[in-house]
Specification:
With 180 residues, the protein is of the alpha/beta class. The chain has a five-stranded parallel beta sheet. Strand 4, helix 5 and strand 5 form a beta-alpha-beta unit. The longest helix is centred in the middle third of the chain and has 11 residues. The model has no long low-confidence stretch (mean pLDDT 94).
């Protein structure tokens, strides 16, 4: 959200959250600092969010990698919870949880690069991430940007996609009838 609004170069990630901060023995304070009121003029970066129409127009674009950030059971169509199970055609699966370690920290760059490579995301491609509602997709978005990819989020995510019967869907859990 902050990147979309034009503040991406002014924010940082507390890698691992407060638990990691404390585990590293870093100081904590209880005083509330006095902060001067400021001003903010949003400068939205519209290309950081794509629509289902944009996805449809780019389904077969070899320079686009659509990445499903959901757990494998949702990608494979066995997880339920959506109007139509499965995933967007040509999407690859990089579960957001595979990008963080057991301490809730983002994995090191070499490990992240391996995850993207093993999923079939080509170097130099634009990464478009989605999940159920757009929240988990932001972890893939962040990791892709961290690795140097151009990245965007499909904010409507699978909730929108699966709810529209006019959009194609792949559901590996449903057996394809044999051709006659």
């Amino acid at each position: 959200t902050l990147d979309y609004l034009g503040l991406g170069d002014r924010v940082s990630l507390l890698n691992g959250g407060l638990d990691a901060w404390k585990a590293d023995g870093r100081p904590l304070v209880t005083e509330v600092p006095k902060v001067a009121e400021g001003t903010f003029a949003p400068a939205p970066k519209a290309d950081l969010v794509v629509s289902c129409n944009w996805i449809m127009d780019n389904l077969d674009n070899s320079k686009i990698s659509v990445v499903d950030a959901r757990a494998p059971q949702f990608y494979s169509g066995t997880g339920g919870g959506m109007p139509r199970p499965g995933h967007i055609p040509n999407a690859v699966n990089i579960p957001f949880s595979s990008l963080i370690d057991s301490t809730n920290r983002l994995r090191d760059p070499a490990s992240l690069a391996r995850v993207f490579e093993q999923a079939g995301v080509k170097k130099g491609s634009r990464v478009i991430s989605y999940c159920h509602i757009g929240q988990q997709a932001t972890v893939v978005y962040f990791a892709a940007k961290y690795l140097g990819y151009e990245a965007s989020v499909y904010d409507g995510s699978f909730e929108e996609w699966s709810g529209r019967k006019d959009l194609p869907l792949v559901n590996p859990a449903v057996a394809t009838p044999p051709r006659k």
